[in-house]
């Protein structure tokens, strides 16, 4: 039998059931009464939650019974889009084509070159169009370092936009957050701690501005109401009457944002936008 793990403790196991070489995050939970299997778009893999005293044999048998379901869901995941030269990525809700510019002085880490673009095409509709007419997201430096430089630049852009939006919305609502963090979150787009600290995913810089605005309004509202009760939603609606538009966008496109700059391996817990689940 597997040894009992402390609450919250996780372990990752590599499973090769009938040739399926997919990394599975296996999480023991003292609260779980049955096995559950979830395919996460955010983590591009599967998460298996098992009861505290279950065995590897039990887990193997459960996965074997649901192998066809697992293969089908994994095959349905969108292909990852690494930060490579020529790749098309969203930025503030608009499609851009990445261009590695090489060592360039006096241009900074990254910049937008839209001189040859016809217009500023909205993402994801523009993702299927030719990249030739898209604005270029240029990245300086040696090609081998460009992906990391672009990632760092995007995080700084997210920090800037989120800080400004939090300041604006907090003033409107008469509230004051203690601190603001921008992280590579996969379980939530944003969160508010009981101490008044707000955390957001840097990937919100990829989404349209009204989506980032909604997430900020949502988390700032939690400074007044640490729940999702009627008073909380009344404050959200008063501050942003069309907030449901952003919710709809997140339901339809939010999980796709995790494709960008990501690899195929599981690195953490279950994503906030599971592709499917089974018990």
From TrEMBL:
<dbReference type="InterPro" id="IPR053136">
    <property type="entry name" value="UTP_pyrophosphatase-like"/>
</dbReference>
<dbReference type="InterPro" id="IPR002725">
    <property type="entry name" value="YgjP-like_metallopeptidase"/>
</dbReference>
<feature type="domain" description="YgjP-like metallopeptidase">
    <location>
        <begin position="34"/>
        <end position="253"/>
    </location>
</feature>
<protein>
    <recommendedName>
        <fullName>YgjP-like metallopeptidase domain-containing protein</fullName>
    </recommendedName>
</protein>
<dbReference type="Pfam" id="PF01863">
    <property type="entry name" value="YgjP-like"/>
</dbReference>
């Amino acid at each position: 039998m597997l040894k009992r793990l402390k609450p919250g403790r996780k372990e990752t196991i590599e499973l090769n059931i009938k040739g399926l070489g997919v990394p599975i995050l296996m999480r023991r939970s003292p609260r779980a009464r049955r096995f559950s299997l979830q395919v996460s778009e955010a983590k591009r893999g599967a998460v298996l939650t098992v009861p505290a005293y279950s065995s590897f044999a039990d887990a193997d048998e459960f996965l074997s019974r649901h192998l066809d379901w697992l293969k089908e869901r994994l095959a349905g995941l969108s292909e990852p889009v690494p930060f490579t030269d020529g790749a098309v990525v969203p930025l503030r809700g608009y499609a851009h084509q990445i261009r590695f510019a090489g060592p360039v002085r006096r241009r900074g880490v990254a910049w937008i070159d839209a001189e040859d673009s016809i217009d500023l095409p909205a993402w994801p509709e523009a993702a299927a169009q030719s990249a030739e007419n898209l604005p270029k997201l240029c990245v300086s430096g040696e090609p081998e370092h460009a992906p990391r430089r672009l990632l760092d630049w995007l995080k700084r852009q997210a920090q800037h936009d989120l800080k400004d939006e939090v300041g604006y919305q907090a003033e409107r609502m008469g509230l004051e957050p203690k601190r603001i963090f921008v992280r590579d979150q996969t379980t939530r787009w944003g969160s508010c701690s009981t101490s008044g600290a707000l955390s957001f995913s840097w990937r919100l810089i990829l989404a349209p501005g009204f989506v980032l605005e909604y997430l900020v309004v949502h988390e700032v509202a939690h400074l007044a109401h640490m729940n999702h009760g009627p008073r909380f939603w009344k404050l959200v609606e008063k501050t942003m009457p069309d907030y449901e538009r952003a919710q709809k966008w997140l339901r339809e496109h939010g999980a796709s944002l995790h494709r960008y700059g990501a690899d195929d391996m599981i690195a953490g817990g279950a994503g906030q936008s599971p592709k499917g689940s089974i018990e």
